[in-house]
């Protein structure tokens, strides 16, 4: 077999993406102001961010970042185990553990790195990780990197999870699930999964990237909402870049497990510590998320409003009560066309296509936040219905294929 050159390889992959309307492009934001973004010189109302509580530009959060940066600098300097660990990191870890009601927390550079850490540090070739089919890509990648056996059960199916675990009684076992599913917005059946974990002596790990700050009492997430604690869910992931408006992540849970991660997880040890100023910003954000309950009002109320209006207009929704409210489009091109019409109308909504979601399940992933008002949401839903009608006409009219639809 002849050696393939890198150019042949990437050209072929590109052609395939073009042919299947799966080209991916970055859009450049030149200015952000609350829910408004300037993109290509136009101001758009943003419905695709994850700043659910509107904290990323809060004056206290930005002020804490500036203040800490002016004293401690911009960088993390080294990894935590060398000389990068700072008292501000300690303070944030304590605050997160206290908020989420767990013995200990450990900071990571990102949620992706934290997921790699948890699975790689705990599971090896002999072990098994069972995961929901719709889990975030970082959990899947983590199991692959760990080299453990990976089994995926049907979405939100605790029975499926127990069947797979029964079939593999040897080795250590972990059940890993998103708390709120990032592309669907529904919540995992955590109480059932906790029962399965107990019966099967498996470790239940909940990635609550989209639940922390938003769901549960005091925004403590889906685990607290299900009235579970560290005894049932020994480890959970809180990301700092979504509802908390910053960057980074923390794994929170059992002190022994957290200690093990801190000393053995490769994506903890071999990477630079989060900049202390970033930790200071999150510390301020956690205090706001914990105490300013009204910040959750809109993320709690707007989904109901948007669903009611969407259903009246015949849009296809998923079974979600969270601020993630996807509108199903079916095929990829249709999702792209609709996103384009929305942009013309002044709304920014991401068209999510495979492989991020399963084949035939392309969607507009709408996210609602404290930054949106009721009128914004009504306007968006009307614009989506209009975009759908236009896409239907486009379909029966001129053939629209390929690059023309892709910016
Ligand atoms: C965003 C996300 C992550 C990754 O977190 P980052 O901090 O952005 O790397 C992990 N899991 C889920 C479910 C997510 O939505």
Molecular structure report:
The protein is α/β, with parallel strands linked by helices and 407 residues long. The chain is built from 15 helices and 14 strands. The chain has helices at residues 6-19, 59-72, 80-84, 87-100, 111-122, 137-146, 158-166, 190-200, 221-225, 255-264, 266-269, 276-291, 297-312, 332-344, 374-396; strands at 29-33, 36-39, 42-46, 104-108, 128-132, 149-153, 173-178, 203-207, 235-239, 249-253, 324-330, 347-348, 350-352, 362-367. The strands form 3 sheets. A 7-stranded mixed beta sheet has the order 4-10-9-8-7-5-6, sandwiched between helices. A 4-stranded mixed beta sheet has the order 1-2-3-12. Helix 6 links the parallel strand 5 and strand 6 (149-153). Helix 2 runs antiparallel to helix 12. The protein is globular and about 60 Å long. The structure holds pyridoxal-5'-phosphate. Pyridoxal-5'-phosphate binds at residues 110-112, 115, 136, 138, 178, 182, 207, 209-210, 239, 241, 249.
Radius of gyration: 22 Å
Strand arrangement, major sheet = 4-10-9-8-7-5-6
**Uncertain regions: pLDDT < 50 for 5+ in a row?**
398-407
Mean pLDDT: 95
Specify the biggest β-sheet.
Answer: 7 strands, mixed
Name the beta content range. Answer: 15-25%
- The secondary-structure class comes to alpha/beta
Which small molecules are bound?
A: pyridoxal-5'-phosphate
Q: How many helix segments?
A: 15
Helix content: 40-55%
From the N-terminal CA to the C-terminal CA, the straight-line distance is 37 Å
**Helix-strand pattern, N to C?**
HEEEHHHEHEHEHEHEHEEHHHHEHEEEH
Total DSSP E strands: 14
- Tertiary shape: globular
């Amino acid at each position: 077999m002849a050696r393939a050159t890198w150019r042949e390889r990437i050209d072929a992959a590109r052609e395939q993406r073009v042919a299947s309307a799966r080209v991916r492009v970055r859009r450049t934001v030149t200015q952000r102001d609350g829910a408004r973004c300037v993109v290509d010189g136009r101001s758009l109302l943003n419905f695709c961010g994850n700043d659910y509580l509107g904290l990323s530009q809060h004056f206290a959060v930005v002020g804490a970042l500036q203040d800490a940066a002016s004293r401690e600098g911009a960088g993390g300097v080294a990894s935590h185990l060398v000389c990068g660990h700072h008292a501000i990191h300690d303070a944030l870890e304590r605050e997160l553990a206290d908020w989420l009601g767990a013995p200990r927390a450990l900071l990571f550079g990102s949620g992706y790195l934290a997921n790699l850490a948890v699975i790689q540090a705990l599971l090896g070739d002999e072990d098994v990780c069972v995961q929901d089919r719709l889990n975030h890509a970082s959990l899947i990648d983590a199991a692959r990197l760990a080299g453990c056996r990976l089994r995926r059960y049907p979405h939100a199916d605790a029975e499926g999870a127990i069947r797979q675990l029964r079939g593999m009684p040897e080795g250590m076992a972990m059940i890993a699930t998103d708390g709120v599913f990032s592309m669907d917005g529904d919540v995992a059946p955590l109480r059932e999964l906790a029962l399965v974990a107990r019966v099967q002596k498996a470790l239940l790990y909940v990635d609550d990237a989209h639940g922390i700050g938003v769901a549960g009492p005091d925004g403590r997430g889906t685990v607290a909402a299900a009235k579970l604690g560290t005894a049932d869910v020994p480890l959970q992931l809180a990301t700092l870049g979504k509802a908390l408006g910053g960057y980074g992540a923390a794994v929170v849970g059992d002190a022994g497990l957290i200690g093990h991660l801190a000393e053995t997880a490769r994506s903890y040890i071999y990477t630079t510590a989060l900049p202390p100023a970033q930790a200071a910003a999150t510390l301020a954000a956690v205090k706001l998320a914990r105490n300013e309950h009204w910040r959750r009002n809109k993320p709690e109320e707007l989904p109901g409003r948007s669903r009611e209006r969407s259903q009246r207009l015949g849009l296809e929704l998923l079974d979600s009560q969270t601020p993630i409210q996807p509108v199903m489009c079916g095929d990829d091109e249709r999702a792209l066309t609709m996103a384009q019409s929305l942009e013309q109308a002044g709304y920014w909504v991401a068209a999510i296509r495979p492989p991020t979601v399963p084949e035939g399940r392309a969607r507009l992933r709408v996210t609602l936040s404290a930054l949106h008002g009721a009128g914004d949401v009504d306007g968006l839903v009307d614009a989506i219905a209009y975009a759908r009608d236009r896409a239907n006409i486009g379909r029966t009219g001129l053939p629209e294929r390929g690059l023309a639809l892709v910016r």
